[in-house]
Amino acid sequence: MQGGIEEHEQILDELGVEHRRVRRPEHLEGINAMILPGGESTTMSKLLELNEVYEPLRKALDQGLPVFGTCAGMILLATDILDTRPDAKKFSAIDMTVRRNAFGRQVDSFEVDLDVDGIDGPMEAIFIRAPWVEKAGQDVRILATVPTGPAQGMIVAVKQGNALATAFHPECTGEKRIHEMFVRDAQAVGLSAHANGTVTPV
Ligand code: GLN
Questions:
Q1: 182: in domain
Q2: Which of 50, 177, 183, 189 has the most CB within a 10 Å radius?
Q3: What's the CA dihedral at 63, 83, 144, 62 to 10 degrees?
Q4: Which tens digits make up the pLDDT trace of 37-49?
């Protein structure tokens, strides 16, 4: 719909993964997984509804279509969003409360090396007006927290079922390992979506 789409496309190209932009419900036909990029979550929410993608996509995600959200994408995957518009849409794919623009004005944008569960070695993570996870449900696996500074301990990467979300932008640092993990997991899940939001085995 909006935001940092090209950065994800570039990584998928490098990984040899076929991709397409989903702008209308018919673009959901045959996809095996979805990436929700960074950008502006309230704008995305409006466009998702306007273009009639919100309902079928929510249905597909409810049935386990693998999804990876970065930053604004993470916000859209939450069950609860703090500091947003009351009518903002969300997919409730991960049982978590996220706070938008959580890191405050002084640290609008920053970089830090993170330990991410499931990934070998440190990951350079860039945060741009990022959210954090303020509360995560029991079934949510916490993959990374901020290691130092005023936001130390805050949750910034999570997974629940087939939904993965990061508050940072692996697609902006030439980092491919999270996308690799996502694609591998999505292949193992083996689902294919249809334009009306139903999902069937590949
Ligand atoms: N602050 C944005 C929002 O609330 C997210 C920023 C980002 O995706 N880099 O949607």
A1: yes
A2: 183
A3: 0
A4: 999 999 999 999 9
